[in-house]
């Protein structure tokens, strides 16, 4: 892409990605990675590292907006964050040693499985909300499970650059019976420290490009609040269906590169 158009194009793309990430609670990185590969020809590791530059500030702003709508369970998020930090670093080291072609296909397979889960969730019965007393009684047990969720979310976020929240949300909705928006908020809070670790690791190995990542981040920050507002306005089943459809689009974009 011509250097003259690179920055404004990244600002516009960041806006669209930020809006989508605000709706779906994933920071937009899942959309940025295949686009960086297709449009700019980045190898998978460089696309993941550059996307992290955009993802981190977008996650923080998304968290703030979610918290304004409903208080986040910070203690549960912290339990998951503790385990995710080390596992994110391990996952990032694994990803940096993989062949880019293989990593891209593993990433596409991961996205496809998550999409299938959300299709099932959007078409299935709505989970009955649990009373507040239920969560107080099992609070300590849930903290231990949050620690386990953080392990898998950290590995996923490290290997794929993003995606830790995407993996955590199904656990939080299916097993802890959280609402979709509440699960998205807790999952994002859980992965913030690990995302910092992943960005530092990718940048240390020269796989994070600020000239592209910074304008993507700026554009994303402008549009995240509108995406979060839409997320709270949509019915939960429709939000899950949109999530699944967008994941299939992402998988197609990844496989288009061959």
UniProtKB/TrEMBL annotation:
Membrane topology: Multi-pass membrane protein
Domain of life: Bacteria
Transmembrane segments: 12-40, 46-64, 76-96, 102-119, 145-173, 185-204, 211-232, 238-256
UniProt entry keywords in alphabetical sequence: Cell membrane, Membrane, Transmembrane, Transmembrane helix
Localization of this protein: Cell membrane; Membrane
One Gene Ontology cellular component annotation held by this UniProt entry: plasma membrane
One Pfam family it belongs to: TauE
Major location (coarse): membrane
Protein family according to the UniProt entry: Belongs to the 4-toluene sulfonate uptake permease (TSUP) (TC 2.A.102) family.
Full protein name: Probable membrane transporter protein
